[in-house]
Amino acid sequence: MTQSATPDIATARLSQGQLAENFDDVKPVLDRKKALVESSRCYFCFDAPCQEACPTSIDIPNFIRMISTDNVRGAAERIFEQNILGGMCARVCPTEILCEDSCVRNTSEDKPVNIGALQRYATDKLMEQGVHPFQRQASSGKQVAVIGGGPAGLSAAHRLAMLGHDVTIFEAKDKLGGLNEYGIAAYKTVNDFAQREVDWLMKIGGITSKTKTALGRDITLENLRRDFDAVFIGLGLAGVNALGLEGEEMTGVLDAVDYIAKLRQAQDKSKLPVGRKIVVIGGGNTAIDIAVQSKRLGAEDVTLVYRRGPDQMSATWHEQEFAQVNGVTIKHWAKPVRLIGQKGAVREIEFEYTQLDGDGKLMGTGETFTILCDVVFKAIGQKLVKDPVNGKAHETLDLAGGKIVVNDDMQTSLPDVWAGGDCVASGIDLTVQSVEDGKVAAIAIDRYLRGKNR
Amino acid sequence: MADLRSNFVGIKSPNPFWLASAPPTDKEVNVVRAFKAGWGGVVWKTLGENPPVVNVSSRYGAMHVNEQRIIGFNNIELISDRPLEINLQEIKKVKRDWPDRAMVVSLMVPCEEQSWKRILPLVEETGADGIELNFGCPHGMSERGMGSAVGQVPEYVEMVARWCKQYTRMPVIVKLTPNITDIRGPARAAKRGGADAVSLINTINSICAIDLDLMAPTPVVDGKGTHGGYCGPAVKPIAMNMVAEIARDPETAGLPISAIGGISNWRDAAEFMSLSAGTAQVCTAAMHHGFKIVDDMVTGLKNWMDQKGYATIEDFRGRAIPNVTDWKYLNINYKSIAQIDQDKCIKCGLCHIACEDTSHQSIAAMRVDGKRRYEVIEEECVGCNLCQHVCPVPECISMVSVDTGKPYLNWTQDPRNPLAKAAE
Q1: Residues 6+ apart with CB under 8 A from B389
Q2: Region class of B276: left (phi > 0), else alpha (psi between -120 and 50), else beta
Q3: Homologous superfamily of domain range B6-323
């Protein structure tokens, strides 16, 4: 098989109508009838395993019972009390490895209660009404800086505002939302939901935001610590891991994260350049998201290559299946070894098969294969950009394993600085974990600030 | 193969499943559809004197529980609102066309001898197999001195039954109202009046729901509602108790009973028959699902009887009656305790929280190697059965007999009973 020297990268591979269909809500909200049927399946377990499996400890049986009695507002309040981004989490949580995986219905009939869909039903209903169910406590007069307007920062800000503190969010990008706005696959969060959720969250009051304000460029940790009573860091992981191969700068070798951000912000998806043959390298949700979205933008062949097996992929089995039914080919046990280009554009990529050696260490087998491609997406993980947090500050934050070190209260090595979300090692890098981190930190900050009052 | 043929006070039918007097039996078209589907008989919807009654819109209220449609259902419909002649013509035609099916006609006329004397020959002329006296409807007609207004006064029950026996050769079934404190009163009265059988229960007075927007009971008729007759699966326990009370009352024991009340499948029918019912009348289940349900009733009952070795209904009819007793004769020394099958347990914890919050704190919630485990604390368990009922897994919790080494002892003999007779 031969191919032309020029890569086939084109816009408008699909009609507007087809694109609209491909990027429509992948799992539409339940209607009342479906919600009642599904809610009736919940056993209302004592010491419910689903609640324990939820990083934000939502009282799931309780909110489902409320849905079953048409007390939808009560259900939404119980969700939001624990997880202010319960609307987004209902869309993006990998429930198949969290609450739904632990549902006792799995044992009895291999079919869990569809908790995610019920959560979305309740949260959407309340948000549609424009109702914000919480009120602020009396002002404490304290000021807290939140660095990063992603899920962790928003969660911390909301909880702090509720507890009576004034919050300023500093966000490097144009909009708040973090990965909710720039990262999640488009069909999971349609109709500008991320921004609507931010607007709804801000109705609590007491939160101001400064966008296009980056730590290390426009603000410093040192100054924030001077000007505010406490600081929360929810920077996320702004850096992208490189393959470490020659030729990574060639045309057509792209960071999946950047492309997804462009896709999410695109007013007209037909204007996005899309390769005909695409190779995705990685095994996480970003890899799945770029692979499926490429397919839905009209790419002909999308091959996702991961260096280990399906069980080691951080994308869940559900996500892997989703990619497969979307026509993505997944190849396991192969690692990229060479990018082959012509005239500065990538045309082929060579992989070496891998296996585990006797000690369980990954090694190449020496055998190789190549895949023709117009575009290669790198989706092999993100990393913390360290300079702003420990580059020039007088006092630096302790880091370990490329993440900010925190205690159980999400407090860093600096007594007035807390951190949460993907930039700390609190658990899995999930939206729901970030929300929990922000909540835990906010409660600890509140204790700290009130202690100072005395 | 079990033989389901029924001969109830001389009324023969190919099976004991009859449609009860209600909307499904109001017209020829419905009844013919029912017979085509396999129903053994019908009790034609209640006929009254001309001019016919007038009905309202809407007529039904319903109880839905946890997405289970219609566990109970009530109606405020009156008796047949069609002219008497039309009904009689259709009854005659259907009986002629379907001679092997039971055709019983329900009647309700004013509590006056002349009224009954007038209508009975008209019904007899149709060739109908029997009559059922509607002394049960708790709504509408009762305000006019009929239906349950008669059924609640044993003297009236006896009197009307006697008139009917006097003025017709047809078997007389008295349909009893449950809206009474002791069902044995009207049953005894029916027997004294010479009735061939009783049928029960008619519907229970009820308000099914309040529409909280309209602030009115359902069904709402132009802003207002009224109490109506409750029926369906939810009333079966009440009906079974009443049937059993009549069957084990020395005065009425042996009086043929046609059971009515929430019968939805063959098992319900078999249960009523074990309490001595001869036929099973059905309404709500048919109104919910259509006439085809009789197929399961007939085949299910046959299959169960074959499995048990019962050739005819008489082989098991009334067999549970000797085991229905008064509380005071239950064995105080008998003990059972709950046992959880850990392999079947899905760890929902419902047994624990029910016992812990509302009963005897005898199911422990444990974590073993981080995994949930629920265990019965045998010393504390009183064998109340609550856990078994709340458990969502079939056969996961069972009640196991414990040998106490003590003999049968009932409350009348128990020394702890201050009124017990001295045990010599």
Answers
A1: none
A2: left
A3: Aldolase class I (3.20.20.70)
* Residue among B66, B349, B392 minimizing CB distance to A47: B349
Q: Does the beta-carbon distance from A68 to B66 stay under 8 Å? A: yes
Average pLDDT, whole number, for chain A? Answer: 95
Give dist(CA A90, CA A29) in Å, integer. 10
Q: Is A37 on the interface with B (CB under 8 A)?
A: yes
A77: closest CA among A88, A91, A92, A87?
A: A87
Greater model confidence, B141 or B160: B160
Q: Which residues 6+ apart lie within 8 Å of B86 measured at CB?
A: none
Q: What token pair was written down for A434?
A: 């970030």
**What does the alpha-carbon distance between residue A295 and residue A299 come to, in Å, rounded to a whole number?**
5
Q: Please judge whether B347 and A107 are an interchain contact, meaning their C-beta atoms are less than 8 angstroms apart.
A: yes
Q: B67 CB near a chain A CB, below 8 Å? A: yes
What pTM value is reported for the model?
A: 0.91
Give percent of chain B with pLDDT exceeding 70: 99
Establish if B347 touches chain A: CB-CB under 8 angstroms: yes
Three-state DSSP class for residue B415? coil
Active site residues of B: 137
Q: Where are the domains of chain B?
A: 6-323, 327-402
Q: What is the mean pLDDT of residues B123-131?
A: 98
Mean pLDDT of the B305-322 span: 98
3-state secondary structure of A51: helix
Q: Can the peptide bond before residue A84 be classed as cis, meaning omega within 30 degrees of 0?
A: no
Contacts of B392 in chain A (CB under 8 A): 43, 108
> What torsion, rounded to 10 degrees, do the Cα atoms B17, B22, B26, B31 define?
-20
| φ and ψ of B107, to 5 deg | -130, 145
The answer to whether A108 contacts B392, with C-beta atoms less than 8 Å apart, is: yes
**How confident is the model over B99-120, as pLDDT tens digits?**
999 999 999 999 999 999 999 9
Summarised one tens digit per residue, pLDDT across range B187-209 is 999 999 999 999 999 999 999 99
Q: pLDDT tens for residues B378-396?
A: 999 999 999 999 999 999 9
- Look at A43 and B365 and tell me if their CB atoms are within 8 Å: no
Query: Pairing state of beta strands B11-13 and B257-260?
Result: unpaired
Average pLDDT over residues A401-430: 92
Catalogue all structural domains in chain A, each as residue range(s) with its CATH number.
Answer: 9-23+240-381 (3.50.50.60), 32-128 (1.10.1060.10), 143-238+384-453 (3.50.50.60)
- Residue A453's pLDDT is 46
CATH number of the domain at B327-402, please? 3.30.70.20
